[in-house]
Design goal:
This protein is an alpha/beta fold. The chain is 37% helix and 15% strand. Helix 1 links the parallel strand 2 and strand 3. The longest helix is centred in the last third of the chain and has 20 residues. It starts with 5 loop residues before the first strand and ends with a helix.
């Protein structure tokens, strides 16, 4: 049975399509909290190899993931779609948008990109999370405020997932090696004001990755994983951004 990499979470009732790119350790079902707040949208979400119910070996280089995602997306992408990526997913969505300009330029010119809670690819190349000890890496994961504190006592479960987490961090760092030119497309950046992993200065640096103005929206009281804790707010800004500027 072929593994599922791209899953339709909701059929939708209009012509609005949202494609979701998961954060580090995430998969398609990670976006279920968002689905209920986008009732009229067609929603698709990716599951990387080694995540969720996908038992394939995890990938460790961003270029591999971008090529895989693009090949699947070519089958379903609609004009006017929003590409939404959170954290690692934001960086992935950016490079997939690059590939779509090469593969489907007419469609790519109609797309909109929403990045949230992600450092720039250049900054990711300066990290060394993969070289942390198991204990330090676990502490770092909890600093994102996306895991229940009770899990700190489930050491065996945490250690079980660490190989995939380390592969994702290598993926993140490899993004700095990909070539790119400034993209020309509408872009919205969602930044959590209590995000301890991504500073406002880092968020603003994304403006260098586009030759169109980047809109920045602050998520009040948002921590790094505001997508998980404040899905209605994220959905609100996604919905607003779906309507093209007059």
């Amino acid at each position: 049975m072929e593994p599922i990499y791209l899953e339709q979470l909701q059929k939708g009732h209009g012509n609005r399509q949202v494609v979701c790119f998961p954060y580090l350790g995430g998969h398609s079902q990670s976006f279920q909290p968002l689905v209920a707040h986008l009732p009229d949208s067609e929603i698709w979400a990716f599951t990387p190899p080694g995540h969720g119910l996908n038992s394939q070996a995890p990938l460790e280089h961003m270029q591999q993931l971008v090529e895989l995602y693009t090949s699947k997306l070519l089958e379903v992408i609609q004009p006017g779609s929003i590409l939404y990526g959170h954290s690692l997913g934001g960086i992935t969505a950016y490079f997939v948008a690059h590939r779509l300009y090469q593969e489907l330029p007419d469609v790519a010119r109609t797309l909109r990109l929403v990045l949230s809670a992600c450092n720039t690819p250049a900054e990711c190349g300066m990290q060394d999370y993969d070289r942390m000890s198991d204990e330090d890496l676990i502490d770092h994961l909890f600093s994102y405020e996306g895991l229940p504190e009770e899990l700190r006592h489930e050491k065996e479960l945490l250690y079980y997932f660490l190989p995939v987490i380390r592969a994702d961090f290598r993926m993140l760092e490899s993004a700095a090696t990909l070539e790119h030119q400034p993209l020309s497309m509408p872009v919205l950046y969602l930044w959590g004001e209590r995000d301890r992993s991504v500073s406002l200065q880092s968020a603003l640096k994304w403006g260098q990755y586009f030759d169109t103005p980047m809109k920045l929206q602050t998520i009040r009281e948002g921590t790094h994983m505001f997508m998980m804790h404040q899905p209605s707010m994220v959905a609100h800004y996604l919905t607003s951004f779906m309507t093209p500027d007059e």
